[in-house]
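May I ask you to review the protein record following this short note?
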Amino acid sequence: MAIKFPEGFLWGGATAANQFEGAYNEDGKGLSTQDIAPKGLMGPLTDEPTEDNMKLIGIDFYHRYKEDIKLFAEMGFKTFRLSIAWSRIFPNGDDKEPNEKGLQFYDNVFDELAKYGIEPLVTISHYETPLALAKNYDGWANRKLVGFFENYVRTIFTRYKDKVKYWLTFNEINSAIHAPYMSAGIWTPKEKLSKQDLYQAMHHELVASALAVKIGHEINPEFKIGCMILGVPNYPLTPMPSDVLKAMEKDRENLFFADIHARGEYPKYMNRFFKENNIEIKMEPEDKEILKHTVDFISFSYYVSSCATADPEKNKAGEGNLIFGVPNPYLKASEWGWQIDPEGLRYILNQFYDRYQKPLFIVENGLGAVDELITDENGNKTVNDDYRIKYLNDHLVQVAEAIEDGVELMGYTTWGCIDLVSASTAELKKRYGFIYVDRHDDGSGTLERYKKKSFNWYKEVISTNGASLKK
């Protein structure tokens, strides 16, 4: 059977402002939570931005966006996922008026994308809460952030209503349970936060997300607004019924967030979880009505699957994208210990679609690896990243299988389509891109861009709408 993707399928790549823009203090931008986290998620924080924070310069997309977008267009991108830095628009988060230079920058980026017919896919909040909101309000632990977010959302929806059609509210919203500072700008140290604190903060984000859907559809009914979930399917480690039930529980920890976004209310299974963990969500009178504004589609990241077990002797976590589960004995892992499971992507696509019957969008998937820049026989600098080609090919073959299963899929954007700074460790040596950026963890490098072998491979995948993939 030939591999077939739907007509109009949105092929592209994904990035985040704090990991690639740089220009952290230019043109009126305020500090974000990322600017004082030189080691990324692994911590610790600093009092002020320091030179060893790779994200302050990133890969300098802020000054090189035309060059980079031209390369994306050469690959044939139909869409490009990027985020708006909230503190570039409202430097302190609670400002009364937006920063015009920040707004103008994204105008310029969207205009450049339009020049090549590339649809922007914009994440409104991608792991970079304005630092002042974290310090002064304790981030999303404070209900006041809903109002500040509403002001931000109204500003960008109104400004870009004719330039952006596809929007995502919060990046990997479920990750805040595991990384409250990075994901939700919560200043209180994680070890001092109770489950009550965390789920109350999540409630504030979920209300803000639904409010964004409501406002967006009022400003432009053509907007397509989605949620973004960190996707990790959980398999039982053994066929023991207790392991199967544990896998169901672990899945629900993540599906809870998608359930509210897609169905507009808290799922019944959370009643037991809240009761057993002494959690009582404080709701404002209008919250239940706001939550009924459900998303148009569900987007998610997928890097790894996980196993679950009720056996405490075997319940030892492996490594993964913020969420750590029991390693699967049947799978190999990347250089960073993330287990590689292409069939897990087909599985989670079917899981989401069976559950919600809403269009899906894979907005992150890729392989982080140490790439070696070489000079080929023609004198061109490149990277022979056959390992990345194999990883992406095998995952996309499973995506095609899911489409054949009946899953409605809007598009696919690989993570870090151009090398950028890692969110978890703030390294540059962990590279995901089709485009190599000459910058290194010691701060050296020219920032020159070079096409990897995977660049032309992905170009062919897009031009053939997936027909060039190898089963």
Remarks:
- DSSP finds 14 helices and 14 strands in the chain.
- The chain has one domain: 10-463.
- Residues 368 and 432 are 5 Å apart (CA to CA).
